[in-house]
Specification:
The complex is a heterodimer. Chain A is of the alpha/beta class. Helices cover about 35% and strands about 25% of the residues of chain A. Chain A contains 10 helices and 10 strands. The longest helix of chain B has about 35 residues, at about 255-290. Chain B has one domain (about 25-295): MetI-like (MetI-like fold, Orthogonal Bundle). Classes of the chains: A alpha/beta, B mainly alpha. The structure holds adenosine-5'-triphosphate and magnesium ion (MG).
């Protein structure tokens, strides 16, 4: 199958401390890729390396090669000698949608959360924005809950509603790749299942990378499962996804080393 | 400290502070009203001229405060016009674009400017005119424009540092979120950060506004006069309320004139309050619009 993400020998360090080392990873042009790993193992840093968001956080050094398919074949996203010119960062970030671990709504109204990026980044008309707002809110199952209060502050939504709003906002921008950092962590089982259905649906068209701390969810959704351990890849499963118990054991196993290290 | 004040006493001390402030403000107001209320009338503003004609500028007012009111209003607005845009830009530059060294340098320059006494700024304007008369422009004279320019220099640091601090106080997460959505740096500043900072910026503008309205030292050296009628143009001299008050206080001949001085103080206070109120109104309108808040919540 066609590749949408190809990462070769990626290393990332912040302030001289190595966070990720020598990661090679690839993902197909559709399907859900789940990342699991202990807290602090570098999953979020890895996601941020894919839309160059690490660079906004502080002095960071990234080496290795990252290529993404953003519409016309695999392209390098970090400049190198082989490919000195790459896509501008704001364009890259628009095409690689990201939902953060903790909900990050903009301090504006619910509607404006979706409308503002569409207006500023995509230069869409009012009508197009209105229809896209509705579509993406329906997609994440939020429309019926909040369609009557779109003009109120997004910060007043519940945590789970905020997280779904963030997903809707990312979808409205029509990304080529979706990065989701524990999108269901603050949802109840039912709402979580709804989002999982949405993701399964989305994964038919988009490559989705999903970080999950829930082993059951991970094995339920994964077409490919990657285990992180202290900044490196421990294992990647793409055909025979292990069941939840095995994943759990895999994560547990590293505990003694983890404590010692 | 904890042992010295039991909790209830601490709460009462905290309550006392705003109460004291309120008392002082009320006391000041009471004093002004008591001294000035007898002079407060249309006559104080317009003298013997019919008010409507005066307001429309069709008749000159010779023994009223109306020209001073108009002069102060023009002065404040012109000062803001001159200071607002450069102040905002400088604040944005310092907060978002400048590297550490240039931020330090410019910040120091701003601090020096902020610490300049207004009489020094007035002398600066006065010397500038003297210099211009001797060299390039023999016809140059003290004027409304010169006063506004000197006042603009005086209030610039308020606007700059408020803008800078308001931007710097915005949490990093919000910036990262905006960048992750594909906004470029300029778009992020324009559409996300500035609307967030508007409250702090407005506070700086209000401070600047109040300072421009009350300042006497600058304008008496750079263009304010006791009797000129309505300001005829940017390059003409003008009357201003604080100068009228100062002038009355220095030269009054009888109790009525003194009362009219207090009346002028009351009018200046009301004018400042009105301007501050307008600034807050503008800020609220801007916030409502930029955040997309409205009651019904339907898409529009
Ligand atoms: N800006 C930074 N500066 C320095 N160190 C950082 C920075 N960001 C992350 N780290 C470190 O990198 C390591 C990996 O962090 P990361 O957020 O990627 O973990 P994670 O796998 O997402 O963990 P969790 O499951 O808890 O979210 C951590 O040890 C963290 O302290
Ligand atoms: Mg994380």
């Amino acid at each position: 199958m066609q590749q949408a993400i190809s990462v070769e020998h990626l290393s990332v360090s912040f302030d001289r401390s190595r966070i990720l080392q020598d990661i090679s990873f690839s993902a197909a042009s559709c399907g859900i890729n789940v990342l699991v790993g202990r807290s602090g193992s570098g999953k979020t840093t890895f996601l941020r390396a894919l839309n160059r968001l690490n660079e906004t956080i502080g002095p960071v050094r990234t080496s290795g090669r990252v290529r993404l398919d953003l519409g016309d074949g695999l392209e390098d996203i970090y400049p190198s000698e082989a490919s000195p010119s790459v896509r501008p960062m704001n364009e890259l970030r628009r095409l690689v949608g990201m939902v953060f671990q903790s909900p990050r709504v903009l301090p504006v109204s619910i509607a404006e959360n979706i409308a503002l990026p569409l207006r500023v980044v995509r230069h869409l008309s009012k009508d197009a924005i209105a229809s896209r707002t509705e579509t993406s809110l329906r997609q994440v199952g939020l429309w019926s809950e909040i369609s009557h209060r779109l003009g109120t502050a997004a910060e007043n939504l519940s945590g789970g509603q905020q997280q779904r709003l963030c997903l809707a906002r990312a979808l409205a921008l029509e990304p080529a790749i979706l990065l989701l950092d524990e999108p269901t962590a603050s949802l109840d089982v039912h709402a979580g299942r709804n989002i999982e259905e949405v993701l399964t649906e989305l994964a038919r068209k988009y490559p989705v990378i999903l970080v999950s701390h829930n082993c059951r969810q991970a094995t339920r959704l994964a077409q490919q499962l990657t285990v992180f351990e202290r900044g490196s890849l421990r294992a990647t499963f793409s055909r025979d996804i292990p069941d939840a118990e095995e994943v759990n054991a895999l994560l547990k196993e590293e505990t003694p080393e983890y404590d010692a290290g | 400290m904890h042992a010295m004040f039991p909790p209830t006493l601490r709460v009462w001390l905290l309550r006392l502070a705003p109460l004291l402030l309120l008392l002082i403000v009320l006391g000041l107001l009471f004093f002004l009203v008591q001294k000035g209320h007898s002079a407060l009338s249309l006559n104080l503003l317009f003298g013997d001229t019919p008010p409507l004609m005066a307001v429309l500028g069709q008749a000159a007012v010779w023994n009223g405060l109306w020209p001073a009111c108009a002069g102060t209003l023009y002065l404040v607005l012109l000062t803001l016009l001159l200071a607002l845009f450069p102040g905002l830009c400088c604040g944005i530059y310092l907060a978002e674009y400048a590297n550490r060294r240039s931020a330090l340098g410019i910040g120091l320059a701003m601090d020096i400017l902020a610490g300049t006494p207004s009489i020094v700024m007035g002398l600066f304007g006065f010397t500038l005119i003297v210099f211009l008369r001797r060299t390039f422009c023999p016809s140059a004279n003290t004027s409304l424009l010169l006063s506004a320019a000197c006042l603009a220099l005086l209030v610039l640091p308020n606007i700059v540092s408020n803008t800078r601090e308001a931007l710097a106080a915005i949490p990093r997460e919000l910036r990262i979120t905006a960048l992750a959505l594909g906004l470029g740096k300029n778009a992020m500043i324009r559409h996300i950060l500035l609307p967030q900072a508007v409250h702090g910026i407005a506070a700086g503008v209000v401070l600047a506004l109040a300072r421009a309205a009350e300042d006497t030292a600058v304008i008496m050296l750079t263009g304010a006069v006791a009797n000129s009628g309505l300001p005829a143009g940017l390059l003409d001299r003008f009357e201003a309320l604080p100068f009228s008050i100062y002038y009355t206080a220095a030269e009054y001949q009888n109790a009525d004139e003194l009362a009219s001085g207090f009346g002028a103080a009351l009018i200046l206070l009301a004018l400042s309050a009105l301007l501050v109120f307008l600034a807050h109104l503008l800020e609220r309108r801007f916030l409502q619009r930029s955040r997309g808040y409205h009651a019904t919540g339907h898409l529009c």
